[in-house]
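Recall the central idea of this unit: under ordinary conditions, the amino acid sequence of a chain determines the structure it adopts. In this exercise we apply that idea directly, starting from the sequence alone.
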Amino acid sequence: MIPQIETLEQKLLSKSKEAFIVAIELYNKPTIKYRVEGFSFFICNAWELMLKAYLIKTKGPQSIYYKDKPERTLSLDVCIRKVFTNNKDPLRVNLERIIELRNTSTHFITEEYEQIYVPLFQACVINFSNKLLDFFDTDITEDLNSNFLTLSVKLSAITESEIQARYPKEIADKLLKACEQITHSIDSTSNPTYAIPVRHDWYLTKKQKEATLAFTFTKDADKAATIIKEPKDMHKIYPFSMKECLRQINQYIKRNNLPFVNPSQSARNNDFNKYHFNLFVNFYDIKSNPEYCYEYSPNNLPMFSYNQKFIDFICELIKKDPEHIIQNLKENIPKK
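Accordingly, the structure predicted from this sequence is:
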């Protein structure tokens, strides 16, 4: 049997996935000192190859070459502008910021850049995975476990005085300017396709089982814990209503062509509905789990909102067994 010859589109896509996996593996190796530069190089390479494959798919092979220089293929910047035509699209802005980092001379890049850019890196990883699925119906988690899509990160505070003492003025000024610009852009955008901030939220609670770390009160001033009281907008932490959760879950099912089954005899379709959602909520006791859910009481009526983590949790469970998941939940809830 004669092996099938790969098309240019398939070759580009294959190399794109490989570059993406190299970027992830390189970044998650703690012994690599130049992982910021390495990640930005390979992730940009992965995007360029994927976007060129997409241009070939949608506009033909000649679309990836400059018209006045037919021997040269388009740069990543040009590919981005051709595919993502809205220059305010958070995904496009995210890529443009990472390209700026890639183009920065390596002697300017210090280890602190990791702490500045990791929210953008994390969003870029998720964006690539989503677009690969949207454009080519290809799930990167078939080649790379989904756990590896979360980047490992070492966090410590960046203080102006320490940076100025540690580096020459030119490098320190450039680093502090980048920190200010990226931090401001993250705060003003608040969009997960632009940046996914890494945060550690501390809550004062008497329920030890809800805590991941514990502290104690002491009369010794050198050992005392400081209580910081800061109002939290819980609707930003848990932004999704049940209706929005249903929309995203159905979108995920359709995008992945999952054979989801609604076992109800009166079902008109196989959409994931309110009843199915409540099966998950009740079976996993979600309403009492602050990892996924927040309860508030306008006019003394209990209401609930959910976070992206809960949506992802449901999607992963559906993906494992789309045909039987609902029936299994129905049969096992009384046993709990």
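Residues 19 and 46 are 5 Å apart (CA to CA).
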